[in-house]
């Protein structure tokens, strides 16, 4: 799902916080005792952490929760991110303490407004851990919503209460906290609760470190010998739900909620000849339940194959992998892709794409890529914002999710295909580069308007500077030069803008382009039929691309480009309608320019499902012609193989 583009964008810097390694045991009392409510170290105390790391140390000492447990729970809930407001599941702060109101369940796209049953789901105690935790810690609920330290302290008090309910005390060793951690997940399903606890314990064993969006460096040292004690699980009385009808990795919490039959087409991919070549990452722009309900609404005409919940990474499969889901806004790409929706909002992505979503999506994508032989690169693992419009009229309105805050560096590393292979730098003109800015230090400024943010948290258009996955490209090697334009998004020829939904002058992490020039700290690439420039001091935002195909036009003429790739009319059997994919009228592959294609060309093809009357079986038509997928601008494009050759 996600936004359609509305139509404006800019640039900034970052801060770095202090670090402290937390070892695999509890913080020493003498050390923690030096951390007061104001965060100052006591005279004569040992070294103490700063910032967020210090807050975890203080809360652990105060509550009796082992510090590694507290850090690992927060890492799984939020990646240690600090934010204002609640996430899509009503969770607040780095510990994602919940307080869900009926109004949070109202979503126009799902038609929930005015429904009388909203109070019932909102009354579940697992959706109101914040007021309970605040009371246990003796803190005002509003302070727990908005203050980082208070949020962590309240969550620690709640986690400690869970452990006391189970064992009567708060043991120092992390191993025995497994069941309390499972309860903290908020899930009544055994698979979901234990999957959360398993991830928390895996984090403690492996260790973790990252720089948050506000520059805090937080670290948890590994404890490889840690073994979880699961003996308290039976006391939680968790339910066992069926995963029948799902196709997921065995350790993922999956359920089936079939989409309405109007929102997909029955097929037998890939045995019917329709290869699955792409996996498309989306966000829902709504709650998880609303997205699932939308897919089950026959009138919506939209469904992805999977939906990933933010709070615990639970997955709903709505459309079988063999079938053709209507998710990408481009029928030919739907034919050849699987779509994964993520509960979240693109305008708040860095804060609310949760660690568990990244981990579970990586597991699902790795599983699907192996099953369907999908290439693990950014021309095949793509965002909805990378899918081309099928025809001229649809290009400007294509969706822009998951947006600038989906951390492609982090995600592609999780699937075993890191964006930055090798040292940062840029090769000579004519060579290919991979866009690879470091997410945490790549602050970019965008303008966010109310129409971009269905949460209601943006009452007026405002600039926002945050770590981002993209770079702006300009018409000349200067920060004051106009942004590149796009003939569909800006039909009047005006430059691109810094609006969050304006993808016309952006390149994102993992995309590959051919170097067209170098001047000082600036690098030029061929992009959307233009020579554009981006700031790249010492090659810090790129790595030299490996194992790529670089295409040029086969002759002196420009090559036409397409958004879909159907066979020639003469290749359709008699009695079937003929689909046409006219070439774009404003995009071409200019002679003399070069673009990257990382895979072999594929056949142009089309699909007709069985309809029970005139067609009793499905029909897949494979044409003789083949096409390459190229990284053309922010989006992909298709070019006939006969019109290009490899260099």
From TrEMBL:
Listed GO MF terms: N-acetylmuramoyl-L-alanine amidase activity
The answer to keyword Cell wall biogenesis/degradation applying to this record is yes
Q: Which InterPro entries match?
A: Amidase/PGRP_sf (IPR036505), Amidase_domain (IPR002502), Lysozyme-like_dom_sf (IPR023346), NAMLAA_amidase_2 (IPR051206)
Q: What is its EC number?
A: 3.5.1.28
Which Gene3D superfamilies does this entry report, sorted A to Z?
Answer: 1.10.530.10, Peptidoglycan recognition protein-like
Swiss-Prot/TrEMBL catalytic activity = Hydrolyzes the link between N-acetylmuramoyl residues and L-amino acid residues in certain cell-wall glycopeptides
Leader sequence segment = 1-32
The answer to keyword Kinase applying to this record is no
GO terms in the biological process aspect are: cell wall organization; peptidoglycan catabolic process; peptidoglycan turnover
Swiss-Prot/TrEMBL keywords: Cell wall biogenesis/degradation, Hydrolase, Signal
Please indicate which superkingdom the organism of origin belongs to: Bacteria
- PANTHER family recorded for this chain? N-ACETYLMURAMOYL-L-ALANINE AMIDASE AMID (PTHR30417:SF1)
Name of this protein: N-acetylmuramoyl-L-alanine amidase
User: What organism is listed for this UniProt entry?
Assistant: Actinacidiphila paucisporea
Q: Supply the source organism's classification.
A: Bacteria, Bacillati, Actinomycetota, Actinomycetes, Kitasatosporales
């Amino acid at each position: 799902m996600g936004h359609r583009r509305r139509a404006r964008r800019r640039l900034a810097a970052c801060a770095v916080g202090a670090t402290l390694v937390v070892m695999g045991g509890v913080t020493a009392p003498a050390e923690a005792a030096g951390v007061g409510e104001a965060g100052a170290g006591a005279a004569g105390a040992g070294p103490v952490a700063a910032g967020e790391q210090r807050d975890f140390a203080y809360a652990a000492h105060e509550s009796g929760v082992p510090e590694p447990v507290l850090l690992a729970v927060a890492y799984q809930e939020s990646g240690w991110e600090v934010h204002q407001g609640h996430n899509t599941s009503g969770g607040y702060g780095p510990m994602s303490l919940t307080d869900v109101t009926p109004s949070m369940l109202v979503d126009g796209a799902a038609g929930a407004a005015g429904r009388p049953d909203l109070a019932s789901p909102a009354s579940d105690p697992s959706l109101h851990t914040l007021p309970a935790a605040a009371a246990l810690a003796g803190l005002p609920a509003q302070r727990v919503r908005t203050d980082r330290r208070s949020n962590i302290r309240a969550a620690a008090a709640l986690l400690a209460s869970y452990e006391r309910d189970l064992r009567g005390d708060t043991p120092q060793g992390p191993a025995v906290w497994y069941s309390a951690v499972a309860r903290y997940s908020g899930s009544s399903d055994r698979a979901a609760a234990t999957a959360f606890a398993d991830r928390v314990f895996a984090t403690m064993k492996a260790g973790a470190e990252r720089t948050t969006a506000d520059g805090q460096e937080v670290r948890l040292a590994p404890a490889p010998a840690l073994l979880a004690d699961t003996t308290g699980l039976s006391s939680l009385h968790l339910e066992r739900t069926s995963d029948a009808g799902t196709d997921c990795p065995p350790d993922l919490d999956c359920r089936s909620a079939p989409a309405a039959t109007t929102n997909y087409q029955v097929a037998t991919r890939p045995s019917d000849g329709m290869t699955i070549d792409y996996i498309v990452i989306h966000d829902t722009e709504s709650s998880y339940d609303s997205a699932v309900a939308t897919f089950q609404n026959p009138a919506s005409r939209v469904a992805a194959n999977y939906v990933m919940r933010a709070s615990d990474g639970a997955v709903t499969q709505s459309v079988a992998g063999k079938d053709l889901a209507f998710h990408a806004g481009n029928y030919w790409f739907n034919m050849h892709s699987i779509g994964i929706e993520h509960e979240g909002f693109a305008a708040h992505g860095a804060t609310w794409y949760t660690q568990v979503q990244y981990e579970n999506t990586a597991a699902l994508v790795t599983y699907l890529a192996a099953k369907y032989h999908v290439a693990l690169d950014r021309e095949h693992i793509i965002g909805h914002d990378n899918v081309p419009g099928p025809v001229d009229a649809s290009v400007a309105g294509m969706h822009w999710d998951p947006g600038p805050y989906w951390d492609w560096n982090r995600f592609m590393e999780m699937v075993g295909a890191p964006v930055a292979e090798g040292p940062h730098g840029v090769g000579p003109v004519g060579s290919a580069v991979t866009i690879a800015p470091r997410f945490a230090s790549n602050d970019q400024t965008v303008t966010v308007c109310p129409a971009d943010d269905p949460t209601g948290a943006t009452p007026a258009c405002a600039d926002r500077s945050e770590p981002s996955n993209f770079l702006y490209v300009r018409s000349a090697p200067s920060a004051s030069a106009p942004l590149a334009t796009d003939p569909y998004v800006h039909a009047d020829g005006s430059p691109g803008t810094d609006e969050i939904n304006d993808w016309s002058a952006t390149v994102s992490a993992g995309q590959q382009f051919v170097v067209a020039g170098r001047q000082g700290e600036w690098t030029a690439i061929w992009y959307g039929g233009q020579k554009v420039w981006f700031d790249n001091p010492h090659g810090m935002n790129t790595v030299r691309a490996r194992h790529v195909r670089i295409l040029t036009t086969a002759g002196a003429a420009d090559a036409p480009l397409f958004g879909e790739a159907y066979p020639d009319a003469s290749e359709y059997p008699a009695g079937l309608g003929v689909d046409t994919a006219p070439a774009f009228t404003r995009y071409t592959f200019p002679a003399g320019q070069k673009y990257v294609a990382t895979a072999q060309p594929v056949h142009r093809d089309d699909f007709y499902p069985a309809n029970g009357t005139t067609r009793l079986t499905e029909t897949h038509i494979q044409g003789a012609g083949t096409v390459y997928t190229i990284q053309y601008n922010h989006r992909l494009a298709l070019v006939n193989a006969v019109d290009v050759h490899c260099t």
